[in-house]
Amino acid sequence: MAARLAVSRWRAAPSAAGRGPLLSCRRWSGAKADTVYDVVVSGGGLVGAAMACALGYDIHFHDKKILLLEAGPKKVWEKLPETYSNRVSSISPGSATLLSSFGAWDHICNMRYRAFRRMQVWDACSEALIMFDKDNLDDMGYIVENDVIMCALTKQLEAVSDRVTVLYRSKAVSYTWPYPFTMADSSPWVHITLGDGSTLQTKLLIGADGHNSGVRQAAGIQNVSWNYDQSAVVATLHLSEATENNVAWQRFLPSGPIALLPLSDTLSSLVWSTSHEHAAELVGMDEEKFVDTINSAFWSDANHTDFIDSASTVLQSVVGFLRPTKVSARQLPPSVARVDARSRVLFPLGLGHAAEYVRPRLALIGDAAHRVHPLAGQGVNMGFGDVSSLVHHLSAAAFNGKDLGSMSHLTGYETDRQRHNTALLAATDLLKRLYSTSAAPLVLLRTWGLQATNAVSPLKEQIMAFASK
Amino acid sequence: MWGGRKLSSFGNRFLGVLRSRCWSTQAEGARLTSSAGECQNQVSWTPQTKPWVFSEYRIMWFKSCRMTFACLNRMKIYRYPWRRLYSTSQTTVDNSEIKTFLALAHRWWDEQGVYAPLHSMNDLRVPFIRDNLLKTVAHHQSGKPLSGMKILDVGCGGGLLSEPLGRLGASVIGIDPVDENIKIAQHHKSFDPVLDKRIEYRACSLEEIVEETAETCDAVVASEVVEHVIDLETFIQCCCQVLKPGGSLFITTINKTQLSYALGIVFSEQIAGIVPKGTHTWEKFVSPEKLESILESNGLSVQTVAGMLYNPLSGYWHWSENTSLNYAAHAVKSTGQEHPVPAEFVFKGETEELRDKDSTNPGVQEELKK
Fold it and tell me: ipTM beyond 0.85?
């Protein structure tokens, strides 16, 4: 703790110096405005709205004032649209628990979602596969459209509007940070200036404004980031025939992973990460060709080589000898017949990680703190995990009468989440790099690795547990 | 070293009284405790006056010795009957202690500064106070668990403990003899409109506020204070007066053991610098047994005594079975029959009457307990 404090003091000094020009033009003196918000969440996306909701429903926040700032307009639905949205998320059981803690999960259940029980992940260059399966027939995860989640969160926010104020179409343009401890006449709160010129004061600012976070940039927090040479193509697909459709499929092609996520008995969502050129091509090509490309991506064994095949057979027989029950046969995903018109969209991918998640009176959550490749379906789950952890720490702090912006509990949140997120980020990046090649030695390595992991159940269970948090 | 300085400051006061032979200087003397500025003058006075009036000083030195080391308020009053007319404001506040705190007044709210251990002690003492107070109510408002409670924070310093209690909904009165501390505390709470309304600060000592706040407080908190007062007995009596029947008294302080000398003074102050030098005097540390006996003899029944341990590496405090260093105590004022308030006897005063009351007072307490 002392070391951490020393480091943070150390960090604060150069950054305070760096922040000098910003501060000097916006130092408040004298006039104390009427409302000081306890928490302001900047960014009303999935993670930001969930944060505001969780705080609004928290028992120790009943007399606190919370504000949510969202740059976009309020999204209202009179009724659920027939067509499925093309942006979906895989919600882990841990995230579902968070959403149900403030009643949003019930709304989602009343709208639509799809639970899946199994996940098959396999290689295009070999026979190796890993099958995640929950023995006790629990759900492994849920595929929910982002719009549905957003609608549920909005409904819950409306229900608690006496504690949580939501400002739509409000974007913060600048932030003023307080000095480390009270100096004569300088306000100890964070001041936020909105686009319309009004200002807000808050004891704690939570930055949930996405991977190009304005809050993070204004605070001068270093961000380790790089762009992948990949873009993701999403689409809503119609299956050839109605099936039980409760399996999530992902195949690692040399160009990138392609995933098929179940939406309903006849619909699935596609997430295909591939090179920028190929992605543009996919979005542009006509429907039939697109469907054929998808089917062959899942079924074709064109990338197999004899060498790898024989090597993997060897290991497979060893595994079969040692643990006869654990040999899983490769299954094929359902074939695709059509794609929804206008549902093909692409977006670029990258990795990002903020060096610090917290500063005095500031915390980053969601994509503002970390950005990950969608291959593991963990992006929004990490964000919801951040929300869980931060709400837990803030709730305890509020019950102890602490100043919400105090570093003592914010560093607790940071340590908690950095440990989890760094591991997941590193693993995802490693997997992405490992599977982006068709060079024989690496293919061999990953084939054997995958087969071995598939055979070791405790290891698979650990992986599933880690990803379900 | 500490003792010497203390003595000379008292010596000077009585010297001044004797030399001027004027009643008005007592008024000065009485006000000394609340004025830190005068206190500073006091200490610089000594070297000049000593050489000329050496013999007088020697006599006064003995008298001031008794004054300083007298634990019992009554004996002091017996010796110096003129004091009777004034409140006992001088009897619990130690001027030399005021100086130490004055020097560090501006550092109160630096969470990583000299007062970091006190900031982190809030993690123990706020839940301790909160949970024990919540036991006395049937149900509480979520979000404001202590709303409706009146708490007196004695020796509040910069308001480190008053603010969390205010945030939990209590109405807090924070008092401290050091003006500067109260100024800092006022300034800090002024930025938060909610706290501004809930907390009130006053620069005074406990004795000065006793009359007006008698029997109005649900809780009195004296955290890290009793090891700085001169007269613990009076202090506890005043705390008891302020409490409603059934009200709670919370004390956190340091035990008087060899370990507390080694770790609390030698290590913390001189070696590691965890606590600023000169903050504590080992002689004034109070053992839990002594504290318990004083509490019980004043009609406060001790509910909990728990040890606290500070880890200087992590900066966090922990509860412990061991009370040989820091400890926290919770006592409740009995709701039984009214028993005569001891402090009143102190003001009235023939010696015989006082002696009678000396003997009957503890007797009265015991009878009530039976």
Answer: no
